[in-house]
Amino acid sequence: xxxxxxAAVKNGHTDIVRLLLEKAANVNKGVRxxxxxxxxxxxxHTDIVRLLLENRADVNKGVRxxxxxxAAVKNGHTDIVRLLLENGVDVNKGVRxxxxTAALQNDHTKIVRLHLENGADVNKRVPxxxxxxxxxxxNIDIVRLLLENGADINKGVSDSEFSGLVMNGNTDIVRLLLExGADVNKxxxxxxxxxxxxKNGHTDLVRLLLKNGADVNKGVQxxxxxxxxxKNGHTDLVRLLLQNGADVNKGVQ
Length: 253
Known about the structure:
This protein is mainly alpha-helical. Helix content is 53%, strand content 0%. Among the domains are: 1-63, Serine Threonine Protein Phosphatase 5, Tetratricopeptide repeat (Alpha Horseshoe), CATH 1.25.40; 180-252, Ankyrin repeat-containing domain (Serine Threonine Protein Phosphatase 5, Tetratricopeptide repeat, Alpha Horseshoe), CATH 1.25.40.20. The termini are far apart. The mean pLDDT is 89.
């Protein structure tokens, strides 16, 4: 059951919250370890958040994923995130999800920027790195923001994620990753990036990879880029690869 303070907080009754606090209500006592502060954050009552903080609510207290900051991040409450940060919240506190990863999963670019400005660990892995989450979501603005703030591309992008970008023809993010040092000839599953792009008919991406030094004849288990394009009937790509030195007789051992 709710405490009187939690009940007032949950329903947004600011005057009652103030009255209970004046009578020494325990500002950190909640239900099942979910504090009044976490509860009010979820319901987006900024005035009550401020009131609880003024009365020494523990800004970091929570259970598992339910901390005040995690709740604010997941619900996209930017003003409350800013308020919590101003009051000393630990930006790297989290159990399964880091706060930054939670922001990425919900596509809140402003919140990601706030976290970075307040010392969030850009390479923390719980269980994914922020960069991996952003790449998986295809959000180029957040990918760029993380890379600009020191995200490690080798920790942040797995073979499967890079392969997915190539297979889906996500040219813009691939270009950005290449600018920050992604391996253009990295083996991704049964293909190289160039073979995967050729197989799926992504002409612009093939051009980009070739421009960045992709080996036009390198294959892995199945096809060279040329045989992948030929097998799937991509005439323009066959022509493009031949123009860039593809060996017309080469196969994969």
